[in-house]
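Methods: holo model generation. Sequences were used as deposited, without trimming of termini or removal of tags, and paired with ligand SMILES retrieved from the corresponding compound records. Each pair was processed once, and we did not select among multiple samples. The sequence and fe (ii) ion SMILES for this entry were:
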Amino acid sequence: MQLEWDDSYKVGIDVIDKQHKVLFDRIEKMINNLKMDLGANADQALIKTEVEDMFYFLTDYFNTHFALEEKYHAKYNKDGLAEHKEIHKSLMEVLNEIKYDVFLKDNIDKALVNELKTQVLTLWVTHTGGEDQVLKEGLQRHQAEGDN
Ligand SMILES: [Fe+2]
Ligand SMILES: [Fe+2]
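and the model returned the structure below.
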């Protein structure tokens, strides 16, 4: 699976597409910073704080994005809204599991940081390029009916 942003993931709603893409850029930056700090032999206490901050950001970003996106599902994917909310809920649970798992680690190294990047991006890209695409279809249906 390709873990980079691709325009084919777009759903056609600017704010949603922007958020989908921003997460990729932000995670790239945060992971690179972490690796740089690990390379500089920063102490584990500092690295742990950095990892915690990253996950506080990710939790907030996921939550904020999902809540906003659900407003668009209510408009363009009304029948699928309840199901999509459930999917968002389970994605948050998986993110939280990854988060609590890493919070309990004694030592954070580059391999773990790379693994975190893959885990989070996989969650995001699978959902963005998969289940979120119903928004694109809903939007197109709306436009075809001329009542967007
Ligand atoms: Fe989304
Ligand atoms: Fe979604």
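The mean pLDDT is 94.
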